[in-house]
Specification:
2 copies of one chain form a homodimer. With about 300 residues, chain A is of the alpha/beta class. Chain A contains 8 helices and 13 strands. Chain A has helices at about 10-20, 25-30, 35-50, 65-85, 110-120, 135-140, 235-240, 285-305, and strands at about 55, 60, 95-100, 125-130, 145-150, 165-175, 175-180, 190-195, 200-205, 225-230, 245-250, 260-265, 275-280. In chain A, helix 5 (about 110-120) links the parallel strand 3 and strand 4 (about 125-130). In chain A, helix 1 (about 10-20) crosses helix 3, helix 1 crosses helix 4 (about 65-85) and helix 2 (about 25-30) packs across helix 3. Chain A has 3 domains: about 5-85, Winged helix-like DNA-binding domain superfamily/Winged helix DNA-binding domain (Arc Repressor Mutant, subunit A); about 95-175 and about 275-305, D-Maltodextrin-Binding Protein, domain 2; about 175-270, D-Maltodextrin-Binding Protein, domain 2. Chain A has a 5-stranded mixed β-sheet, with helices on both faces. Chains A and B meet through helix 4 of A and helix 4 of B. Chain A binds a DNA duplex (30 and 30 nucleotides) through helix 3.
Chain lengths: ~300, ~300
Amino acid sequence: MDFTDVSLVALRVFREVAERGTLTAAAGALGYTQSAVSRQIASLERAARAPLLERRRDGVRLTAAGHVVLRRAVTVLDEIDATARELAGLPAEAGTVRLGWFASAGAVLLPRAVAALRRSHPSITVSTREGSTPALVRALRAGTLDLALLASAPPFRPLDGESPPLTVRTLAERSLRLAVPVTHPLAAADSVDVADLRGQRWIAGSSVGDERLMGVWPGLDERPVIAHTARDWLAKLHLVAAGCGLTTVPASLAPAAPAGVRILSVKGGPEERRRLVLARLPHPLPEPAARLADALRSAAADLDEPA
Amino acid sequence: MDFTDVSLVALRVFREVAERGTLTAAAGALGYTQSAVSRQIASLERAARAPLLERRRDGVRLTAAGHVVLRRAVTVLDEIDATARELAGLPAEAGTVRLGWFASAGAVLLPRAVAALRRSHPSITVSTREGSTPALVRALRAGTLDLALLASAPPFRPLDGESPPLTVRTLAERSLRLAVPVTHPLAAADSVDVADLRGQRWIAGSSVGDERLMGVWPGLDERPVIAHTARDWLAKLHLVAAGCGLTTVPASLAPAAPAGVRILSVKGGPEERRRLVLARLPHPLPEPAARLADALRSAAADLDEPA
DNA sequence: TGAAGTCCATGACGATTACGCATACCAGAC
DNA sequence: GTCTGGTATGCGTAATCGTCATGGACTTCA
């Protein structure tokens, strides 16, 4: 079995695995069994005469050979899909751009930029999906996304160690904010001191295990009390409005705060800088993607100006 | 069955069929049965929801949809094969050029150009194969060749009706010549009159059926006597040397005439112009192919000068 | 320290697929 | 008619590929 005899479904499975980071997840996404995916990958590795995945506790990562195959597989599969569209008489998908975004960008920046783009370039179709930073980074590498809106915190590491490195452009850099109920004593002032945050009840992000505890003000010198955990921003903010606790929010989310919530800055501690960045593969960007990138940039700038 | 689910072997089979012009020939080349090829094509057409081949008495021709699929298939298969090479640690085949040639070019122009190129650009690898004009044209379209050296006779039609049209460059245009044994009465002069060709015995090219009878001087007002038929130039010329008959030769072959053969021009009839042309796909040429094209051009020019 | 959860690999089995063989069909040459 | 190109197709067999079920390695939690 030579590599020239690989099957397209094996390549498709491999791309999905590269994007999901897990055989099991890829199987779910494809409607296969984990077993089937495992076999497909095994057969692909046999054809390549080299391991393509490095098996780790929490899933898999691409090896060097894996990156080679992924890059090629993406162009092959894109070509096949383009053929299918061409045969079906559909216009080439030249006018669409695929954007991935981290949840914090979904409430304000994303709708504004997409609306602006629809006004200025009505012919461009934007399709987007939400995802975690690693998922979006993998999707960029797998060629499933053109652009990804990501959050980045100090020490502003590169998004992944792979090569070629992703191109990253900072759209906005502002300090982390605090969401408090308007009924809360702290809500009286425009800003609070970090010392006043001791003993508060917090609404955290994903349950636990995340490297840093999202939602709780970083660097507190106590073990925080987690009253609730929620991934969804709307839920989080309404929990805050209901007086269930405090939480941190990126400054860019401020315009979307519902009634009953005040967004404050926090003084007295180390500055907590947060970046909103736009990432993409280093290759030249297709035209519609470049236009969307422009729209995102100016939407981010507008966000900064009036503040 | 969607087109996105085609199998690579189906694409490979299809490319081979496009190149050979016949299911049976493709089957032979691939080591398959004609039956298997027929089924693969049928399955491909089912996936494409459109006939890709037009069945004719003497084989098949690509339909419009067939051309779409062929173009895509070529890039897909090339990508796959490049992946295989990359995985095997082989250098990308960037330094090689594939040339096809019509038999008349094989004795003089081809060896000279390849030798010159080896001197001037030793790092370029040239791989060549001989073939009939339609076979070479199909191979160009199937992406199996970068360049093709072809013979062309009035009325100098385009090589095929397909689009995009092939790029054709004339390397040399000279008149058809006549090969006679040195012992023949006609060999006394430098040229013969067309009237003297009546009643001669001829050595023709491929048996028959070819649109025009190769080897016999065109336009004779009699039914020529075919003494022998031979496709191979060495055989033909030695048959001439042995006094078995006369035959026509392209002027470019003159330097390769063996002892015992004289190459004469023919006066008194309509001028019989023959072109030696270099054909390729209209896309930009890879660097090594451009160098070989240069070498062929100058070899052809050198051939013309000293004449 | 044991139970439960994550992940991937693999043996057994069944359904589908894809091949080769033989044959049918069609059209042109003689 | 018969022969010689070509393609299509019924049939039997062998290989492929999915699912199911299980096992092994490891982490997390009580």
